[in-house]
Write a structure and sequence with these properties.
With 270 residues, the chain is α+β, with helices and mostly antiparallel strands. The chain is built from six helices and 13 strands. The strands form three sheets. It has a six-stranded mixed beta barrel with strand order 4-8-5-7-6-9. Strands 11-12-10-13 form a four-stranded antiparallel β-sheet. The protein has a two-stranded antiparallel sheet with strand order 2-3.
């Protein structure tokens, strides 16, 4: 009897250890981005903005933010193109887009279906499809197990140090730090020239998409600094900046767009 009791106890311990090991395999520790205390981006933090006819109010602080909903992801269509923070989007980084969190903010994203979680840096705006609360980079989606199905149920929690736009906008030291973060001074906008009715116009193509909504999103990001339109033909939606009256003016803008992270913008004459 005593031997049977000992064997039963050992078996119970083994089962318990196995169960713990299985539980750990279902929930991985947070990896991903390294959390830093950063100044607010000089771009991407308007008090309010509008996309596809809907207005969004940017939060003054990320503190206390916690939400459950659907996550989607975006990849090569936007790789190398300018994010709302002003830097090029890198699909192989631990980053994400959010409609209203201050930029940049850090969040922990947990896939509620498999327990995997990652720390991500929010540096872009989106997703603008109803019901979705965060857009993941390709790398983040891959590691969270979202790529195959396209969307997943997640919980998003803001992490300290929390971004606070009100506090940091009013602090002189932050203004200096934000200026120092830019290696080059931003070029002054070039005024549009009036075109006669019959004059040829110069346009700059900055993107081409299979989905119209992606082209609309790029136009939104451009409109703060550059007038843009969508030209659609044969299921391809091209985003064009302009028009400009001279080749010299359009070339100057093309160089600005290239420096801002847009991949190979090219001049077109129409």
């Amino acid at each position: 009897m005593q031997l049977s009791y000992k064997l039963g106890f050992i078996f119970s311990v083994c089962v318990l250890v196995s169960a713990c090991s299985f539980s750990k395999s279902k929930t991985s520790n947070s990896g991903g981005a390294i959390v830093r205390d950063e100044p607010p981006s000089p771009y991407g933090n308007p008090k309010q903005y509008k996309v596809l006819g809907k207005s969004y109010n940017v939060m003054e602080s990320s503190k206390g933010y916690k939400e459950k909903g659907l996550a989607s992801w975006y990849g090569k269509d936007f790789h190398g193109k300018r994010t709302s923070s002003g830097t090029p989007y890198n699909m192989h980084s631990y980053s994400a887009a959010h409609k209203t969190l201050p930029i940049p903010s850090y969040v922990q994203v947990t896939n509620l279906d498999n327990g995997k979680r990652l720390i991500l840096r929010v540096d872009d705006r989106g997703p603008f499809k109803s019901g979705r609360i965060i857009d993941l980079s390709f790398l983040a989606a891959k590691e969270l197990g979202v790529v195959a199905q396209g969307v997943a149920r997640v919980e998003v929690v803001a992490l300290a140090p929390y971004q606070n736009l009100t506090k940091k906008r009013s602090a002189p030291t932050v203004q200096v730090a934000a200026s120092a973060a830019n290696n080059k001074p931003s070029a002054a906008p070039i005024p549009m020239q009036t075109l006669s009715n019959n004059a040829p116009a110069y346009w700059i193509q900055v993107g081409a998409f299979g989905e119209h909504k992606n082209a609309q999103y790029l136009v939104y990001k451009l409109n703060d600094n550059h007038p843009a339109k969508i030209q659609s033909a044969q299921n391809i939606h091209r985003v064009l900046v302009g028009p400009y009256a001279t080749a010299a003016q359009s070339e100057q803008i093309r160089k600005q767009l290239s420096e801002q992270g847009f991949d190979a913008p090219k001049i077109m004459r129409q």
